[in-house]
TrEMBL record:
<feature type="domain" description="YHS">
    <location>
        <begin position="407"/>
        <end position="438"/>
    </location>
</feature>
<dbReference type="GO" id="GO:0004497">
    <property type="term" value="F:monooxygenase activity"/>
</dbReference>
<keyword id="KW-0503">Monooxygenase</keyword>
<dbReference type="InterPro" id="IPR012348">
    <property type="entry name" value="RNR-like"/>
</dbReference>
<dbReference type="InterPro" id="IPR009078">
    <property type="entry name" value="Ferritin-like_SF"/>
</dbReference>
<dbReference type="Pfam" id="PF04945">
    <property type="entry name" value="YHS"/>
</dbReference>
<protein>
    <recommendedName>
        <fullName>propane 2-monooxygenase</fullName>
        <ecNumber>1.14.13.227</ecNumber>
    </recommendedName>
</protein>
<keyword id="KW-0560">Oxidoreductase</keyword>
<dbReference type="InterPro" id="IPR003430">
    <property type="entry name" value="Phenol_Hydrox"/>
</dbReference>
<dbReference type="InterPro" id="IPR007029">
    <property type="entry name" value="YHS_dom"/>
</dbReference>
<dbReference type="Pfam" id="PF02332">
    <property type="entry name" value="Phenol_Hydrox"/>
</dbReference>
Amino acid sequence: MKSREQYQRLTHSLHWDPTYVGDDAYIPEEWRTACSMPDWKKFNDPFQILFEDYIRIQAEKEDKFHAVRDAGARFGHIGRVDPRWVEAMKSFNTALTYSEYYNYRGHVRVARFAPAPAIRIASMVQAMDERRHAEEAIYQAKDYAKHHESGFLLPKDRITFFERHWYFQGDRSFFEDLITTDPIEAIIGTNLVFETAFTNLLFIAAPAAGVANGDFGFGQAHLTIQSDETRHMALGQSVARAMLQFGDTNLSLIQDWMDKWFWRCHRLLLAVVSPVLDYFPKKKPISYKEAFRRYVLEDFIEGYVSELSQFGLQPPRHLAQALAEVEHGSHTIWRSLYTTRDQLWFDVHQPTEDDLAWLHDKYPAFGPSHAAFWRAAADGAVVDADTLPMICDLCKFPCTFPEPATAKAYPVDYAGQRYWFCSEGCQWIFGRESAKYVRSNEPSALLLADKDPTWVAQFLNITPDGTPLGGTHAPDGYFPAMPVPATI
């Protein structure tokens, strides 16, 4: 049997419309897509991968990944990774592990509730991809912990920190929002925006920095991941194109979803990836600004989105603000981390003279806006934070953008409560779905108001006298960034 015929049998021939239960029982209303298509069965995944081919291809990738791991351990490469890059992995690896795991959970849900048989099959395969990616990150964490000094979160502490430490709450908020959406919105947010526009920052630019600083295992792992991302991107692009061909309602939905997830991706990647390119590594092959312009602006906006303008799709609503923030973003994030370094389990260093020269060269705004802070720190000035920053009630990052001297917070009054946002983008997203976000977005002061000082100190990973706990358990109970239904 030819592969195309096999694929048709795998998707279309296994679909049925149940007659023994109604639509509400088959797909609950909250999980039905708002998009429409004359016949969902006619949608085809462009890759049309069969399970037996998928297993063979993934096995080959796993063999290559573990061969590099084994070589790194046997010849001592993993122990010679630059110490500053090792510090980056103490935070980045945990964030990557659970980000991939959340994507796995999200695509399991899409595989259950998407209206098109081909989307369900493709999402099931993608869920297996994301699970494999998370497992590879865990293998890397084991290698780091084995060959480097303490500071890596132990397995028993990793999920605790991801769920409860303030450093990870922006990451959690993003992915818990993503896995509680319309199934087609999940495809647009994950496959079209996150993976087409932004994952090249994660899986090309960041691995290049890793390899430049001696971390060959990190580079090989992300090479195997990025080859999967190509398939994921194709699904997102084909779904977007199919939806845009059928009516203005779909256009309005796709535009709104792209606008929302472009801003949420921008804010997350700026906070998580920009320090990994601009500050952590000693050798810096590419700046975050250069990578953003190459992969996000030129490839995605000027390439793919421009091509879809024939259907009425416009560039993301807050693109101009994102471009302006990129000039300052990594510097703002690193300054914030430095002032709160006593609450962190990884080292946040002062830039060296070589670092400062590179930053001046790559970022014209660095000198006027950020250099004075580092001169003061080098001269012994106390720059540590003496108060908690205002946290955005949507993205969970501090309201310090675009840079501390000109930062703004944007208020919204809703149901008798005032909420604050770090940007017009987060303010706009909250306005679209206020009821969704207010269920969990109580201001942090209210969340901690009835807790005793010891509990608050544990929640923030510090002791009452300000000494970092450095890897002990956070307290039982936490406040989820977004309610996740039990059906997932």
